[in-house]
């Protein structure tokens, strides 16, 4: 099976973190390929940045159309996920929906540990959109400025651990969800230092995507996630335009 993993951020250093965790998590016979957004921001923390990141992800995935059996959107908050599920007739999995699904299989209530205070409102909306607001114990986040998006884990490791423990002790979390591609792989480090299960978005997305590809559920021919209707379009990158072009 072939999976394409797209980083909706422009940070190639974060793509490297995503790739390392994805390869650790993937089955031996899964072929992974990776793409980084060609435009946008270093890391997404607002609704508008997510809007840009969703379009950048669609452009990147369109360049690889026909070469993958499943698509992973590797940014917490799942920018553009609903539209991407419409556009491609293969399983499309977001980090958020995958991490939340894993968390719900492991406990009753989960807490999200994030890298930015600004990001909290958007993450809360993402949880609500997944119908899981009643199972959210808390969202806790770093508040100090980030020196480098690629070194968040090293720079703030102890604070991230402290936030996770607070979520367990004070908020009643049964599961910790480590949020954001810059924290990819951190869950493996935290497992021995946090007294509840810890979930990583990248590894969850890869494994859930593998499961859906293996299940061969078929594509949406009707319903709200069927492909967008073909119609004339202008100004789009050629690969994306071809996917939406009306037949001649």
From TrEMBL:
It holds the Pfam family Asp_Glu_race. This is Asp/Glu/hydantoin racemase. It comes from Pandoraea pnomenusa. Residues 220-248 are annotated as: Disordered. Belongs to the HyuE racemase family.
């Amino acid at each position: 099976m072939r999976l394409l993993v797209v980083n909706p951020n422009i940070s190639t250093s974060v793509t490297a973190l995503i790739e390392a965790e994805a390869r650790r998590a993937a089955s031996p016979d899964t072929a992974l390929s990776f793409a980084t957004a060609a435009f946008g921001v270093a890391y997404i923390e607002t609704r508008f940045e997510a809007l840009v990141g969703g379009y950048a992800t669609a452009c990147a995935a369109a360049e690889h159309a026909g070469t993958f059996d499943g698509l992973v959107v590797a940014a917490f908050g799942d920018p553009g996920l609903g539209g991407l599920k419409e556009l491609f007739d293969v399983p499309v999995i977001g980090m958020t929906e995958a991490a939340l699904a894993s968390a719900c299989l492991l406990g009753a209530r989960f807490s999200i540990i994030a890298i930015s205070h600004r990001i909290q409102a958007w993450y809360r909306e993402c949880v609500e959109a997944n119908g899981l607001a009643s199972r959210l114990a808390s969202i806790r986040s770093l508040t100090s400025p980030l020196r480098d998006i690629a070194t968040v884990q090293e720079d703030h490791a102890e604070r991230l651990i402290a936030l996770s423990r607070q979520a367990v002790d004070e908020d009643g979390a049964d599961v910790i969800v480590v949020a954001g591609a810059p924290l990819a792989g951190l869950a493996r480090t935290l497992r021995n230092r946090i007294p509840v299960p810890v979930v990583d978005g990248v590894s969850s997305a890869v494994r859930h995507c593998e499961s859906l590809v293996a299940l061969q559920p078929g594509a949406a021919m009707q319903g709200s996630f069927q492909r967008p209707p073909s119609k004339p379009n202008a100004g789009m990158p050629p690969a994306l335009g071809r996917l939406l072009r009306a037949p001649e």
